Amino acid sequence: MKKRMFSLLSVTALAALLLAGCGTATTGTNQQNATTSSTVTGAQTTDGSAAGTAQNNTTAQTGTAQANTAETADISALSKKVSEAVAAADAAKPSGTTDADRTLFMEHKTALDALDREVDAYSDALEAQYRNGSLRYEDFRSKDAETEKLEDSLDDAEDRLEDRFGMDD
């Protein structure tokens, strides 16, 4: 009888811990999604502060249209940054001195890596918008495909840079 009571008590305590853990994880995920979503739909004002796109039930369609415009601007800006960084990395030529080559290589590699993180953050924000229902699946897939192309372009540029400078960092 004591063994049965102990088992029941243990199962109840374990269930309570699991439910408490799920509640905390969900809250953290929702906070992360809200933060990430505001990053994608946010715009920068002339004084440098961030101004987000507000959405509520009465202005959902207007907010969605504004969010789509902000996303398009973000992917366009990212595409432009990526193409500029790729062009700069492709134009970089080794000078012959080891220290100068290493410095130049690391400058371009750091720029490419930073853009890769920026594209990843954008992709994560898109996924968060899809998960919270503010982005349709078809839109998510097409935008995600665009970010994949940008990431591939950055990876290819980094590979070419490593080959040209003879470094594998």
Describe the structure.
- The structure is a single chain.
- 80% of the residues lie in helices and 2% in strands.
- By secondary structure, it is mostly helical.
- The chain has helices at residues 2-41, 60-91, 98-131, 137-165, and strands at residues 43-44, 50-51.
- The relative contact order is 0.11.
- It is built from 4 helices and 2 strands, in the order αββααα.
- A two-stranded antiparallel sheet has the order 1-2.
- The N and C termini lie far apart (64 Å).
- β1 (43-44) and β2 form a beta hairpin.
- The radius of gyration is 23 Å and the shape is elongated.
- Mean pLDDT is 72; it is low at 22-69.
Portion of residues within helices:
over 70%
What is the first-to-last residue Cα distance? 64 Å
Number of E strands: 2
Low-confidence stretches: 22-69
The H-and-E topology, N to C, reads as: HEEHHH
Global morphology: elongated
Main beta-sheet annotation: 2 strands, antiparallel
Strand order of the biggest β-sheet: 1-2
Number of discrete helical segments: 4
Taken as a percent bin, the fraction of beta residues is under 5%
Instruction: Please tell me how large the radius of gyration is.
Output: 23 Å
What's the average pLDDT?
A: 72
Q: Helix- and strand-based class? A: mainly alpha
